[in-house]
Design a protein that fits this description.
The protein is an alpha/beta fold and about 450 residues long. The chain is about 25% helix and about 10% strand. Strand 2 and strand 3 form a beta hairpin. The N and C termini lie far apart (about 50 Å). This is Lysophospholipase.
């Protein structure tokens, strides 16, 4: 009789743990090397959105999956280019009419409070795409791929939300698999992708959503001098474990390894670390040929640089762009059982984000009563820009925080994913209303606990 063990996940979202790094010490006697980096090349043409891929200005082709409302699965990856000046006509869905920004105009009362069909049953033949109420551009985490949305996407499409997910450079089926492209390249790719997807669905609210590394990339993209236009940003356990909250021993070993054995790969699995309590999600990840299972040391070093950059960008996240354009509101979700991005690192980044206090003021205005005060996350964050005032900047876009006691790192793939998805759908429909699960109230209680925690 065969015994099926619980799969050991490839831990695709953060730098290696302390045990993984210390295991590299015997090999550090080799001659010094330089970590390898392959950023974007020079622009050769305007970016292009194809049915199955994004083509970046330097010609890099980033494979993509799309899930549309009214279809059982994504329409496939047939690699057919689409004519047009960079943006394909939305021939795979009916034209969408104008939709409100604050709330989705097409939503009936209560339609966005849970995972609900986008249209009454029988209103369209099965497999016929319907006009989306909103569009989500989703960015995966470290060593993962566009397939990370395979489990949650159908629930979003049933709520009338179209989902686009692409392989970021160095991951999945994108160019230079396993080699780090650099934070700026990832952020500019995300900005270009957002503009292309937004242009394909004019008048439909666009939301950017990033898991772990993808969340860190979106924090950088949102703070570029010319950030992409979006109606909201969803950060799912963003990778913000920078050097300032990492142990000195871990920083030293990773730096030494990156500059002595950068090309050495190490297995991505580690006993005792659980990215999710969903065995099906772990099996899908492990069996997916697009998952990277052996991480180069210099790629982990690059991830650390990205996390540092995301933490440094936190004080500007939610502030207006250089041209004065207001930033979109954001939803920041974190699980109490996250073993990949530590609580201390998450609090450190949150403490610097000016939108969290702005969301408290918005909640007071909507509810007509005092909202739970933040009072600081209890961990000093990075230096604030002038006017940010420890999270109290008056012109910051609101940042809603959700906290899940049963949540792990893969919030959209956990066994509790339905509650998280309902919150995301509800927030997309109304960025002022409380989250259906009560995760925003749980977040206020969490911050109050850590503020009064001894030591």
């Amino acid at each position: 009789m065969m015994h099926r063990d619980r799969p050991s996940a490839p831990l695709p979202h953060t730098a290696p743990g302390r045990r993984g790094l210390l295991s590299l010490l015997p090999a550090l006697g080799v001659a010094a090397c330089t970590p390898r980096l392959i950023p974007a090349g020079p622009d050769i043409a305007p970016p292009l959105l194809r049915r199955d891929a994004l083509v970046m200005p330097d010609g890099a082709l980033l494979p993509m999956r799309v899930w549309l409302p009214g279809t059982a699965t994504d329409p496939g990856e047939d690699a057919r280019p689409v004519a047009g000046a960079g943006v394909a006509p939305a021939t795979d869905a009916p034209p969408a009419g104008p939709v409100g920004v604050g709330r989705l105009a097409a939503a009936s009362p209560g339609a966005w409070s849970g995972i609900a069909p986008a249209a009454p049953p029988g209103s369209a033949p099965r497999g016929t795409p319907t006009a989306p109420r909103a569009v989500v551009l989703a960015l995966h985490g470290f060593n993962d791929s566009r397939n990370f949305m395979e489990l949650p996407a159908p629930d979003l499409t049933r709520a009338g939300i179209a989902v686009y997910a692409y392989d970021q450079r160095g991951f999945g089926g994108a160019p230079h698999r396993g080699i780090w492209p650099g934070p700026e390249t990832l952020a500019r790719d995300a900005a270009a992708a957002a503009r292309l997807v937004g242009a394909r669905h004019p008048g439909v609210p666009l939301f950017l959503m990033g898991e772990s590394m993808g969340g860190a990339v979106l924090m950088l993209a949102a703070t570029l001098p010319d950030p992409p236009r979006a109606d909201g940003i969803v950060l799912l356990a963003p990778a913000v474990w920078g050097r300032e909250t990492m142990s000195p021993a871990m920083r030293w070993v990773l730096r030494l390894a990156a500059h002595t054995i950068p090309l050495v790969g190490f297995g991505g699995s580690a006993g005792g670390i659980t990215p999710t309590d969903n065995d099906e999600a772990l099996l899908r990840l492990w069996r997916d040929p697009l998952t990277i299972r052996n991480t180069r040391v210099d790629a982990a070093w690059g991830l650390l640089a990205l996390m540092d950059a995301a933490v440094a960008a936190a004080p500007r996240f939610g502030l207006p762009a250089a041209d004065g354009r207001p930033a979109p509101p954001a939803l920041f979700l974190y699980g109490a059982r996250d073993e990949l991005v530590p609580e201390r690192a998450t609090l450190f980044a949150l403490d610097a984000m000016p939108g969290l206090q702005a969301d408290r003021r918005a909640a007071e205005s909507v509810a007509g009563r005092d909202a739970p005060g933040r009072g600081g996350a209890g961990v000093p964050g990075p230096a604030m820009p002038a006017g940010a005032g420890g999270g109290g900047s008056g012109n910051a876009a609101p940042l809603r925080l959700g906290y899940y006691e049963e949540g792990y790192h893969f919030l959209l793939r956990d066994r509790n994913a339905a509650a998280v998805l309902r919150d995301v759908v509800a927030w997309i429909g109304d960025r002022d209303a409380p989250l259906p699960s009560g995760a925003d109230a749980a977040a206020a209680a969490w911050l109050a606990r850590v503020q009064h925690r001894p030591g």
